[in-house]
Structures are given as C-alpha cells and as structure tokens.
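User: I'm putting together notes for a lab meeting next week and I want to include a structural view of one of the chains we've been expressing. I don't have a solved structure, so I'd like a prediction I can at least talk through. The sequence is below, exactly as it appears in our construct file.
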Amino acid sequence: MIRMSKRVAAGLVLLAGAVQAATTTTTSTTATTTTTLLPHPFSPATRGCIRQARVDLRVCRKTAGTTCDSAYEKDYANCFATGAGVKCATKCETKQSTCLTAAPDTQKSCNTTCAKARRTSRRLCRSLSADGDLWSGQELGCITDADAALHLCLFTCAEAKLDCVNAFTLCIANCPNL
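Assistant: Thanks for the context. Below is the predicted structure for the 178-residue chain, given as structure tokens.
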C-alpha cells in the first residue's frame, strides 16, 4: 500500500507541474460567461493608411533611418479616427511595446520554473524504484512524462512574444477607424 501511494503522489506532482506551468487558473464566486470575438476588419480608409505606413517603414529601414519605429508608431496611430481612435491606437502600441520589452525576462523566468518542476518530478520518479520494487520499470515512464511536461512548459514560455502580438490585435480591433 505504501508503494502505491508513492506512485500516486509522484503522478500527481508531475501532473500538477505540467498544469501549473501551462495554465493559470483563477476562481471567483460569481459565475460569468465571456466570449472573445474575432477582431473586426479595418475600414478601407484605415486599412489603406496602415498599408502605407508599413511601406513607409520598409523604405525608412532601407535608408538606415534610426527613428523609423517611432515614426511608424505615430503614422500607424494616425490611421485611426481623430481623437479617440488615435488615443486608443497609441495606448495599444504602448502596451505592446511594454509587453515585448518584458517578453525575454518573462520567458527566462518561465523557463526557470519549468526546469524546477522537472527536477522535482524526476526526483519523485527516482523514488519509485529506490526500494527495489517489482514495478520499478515505471520509473522510465515517469521520467518520460516529466520530460514531456517540460517540453510543453517550455513551448508555453516560448510563446511570450506571440501573446503580446495577439493582445495587440485584440486591443487595436476596439479602436475607432477612419
């Protein structure tokens, strides 16, 4: 019976490590349902303006301009409705810039968390066969599961920049168009 509980505990720690690294769960006492709608298409005027801003950015970068990105951000924001649209687009760009700046540090700390979870899981896996149990062959499967959880965790960490881009796409979709 004691051996079985060790296996169950090791499996639960492996599972908890993989879930903790891959998702964040929040609980509340109020039940709410939210739906994320796909971003709406830009108006023809906004779409054309954004296209021109991107062309200007490429031309600027080819001529070795040092202020290309800041000029592009300003041009991009001006592709939205005067006043509220420009303010909204500027806010979205600022959030994205902050997010992209923090992404490498976020990824690094996430990778560290993944490695710690793997070490803990592998320690527990090794404890499965420490007593010479007939079922010690499960140690290999346990280690394989720990490695799979690590790779899933690392993949999730590697998506930090993509999360910034997706958040920007959803943010900019709410800005009033030209």
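A couple of points you could mention at the meeting. The first helix runs from residue 2 to 22. Confidence is low (pLDDT under 50) at residues 1-27.

User: Perfect, that's what I needed.
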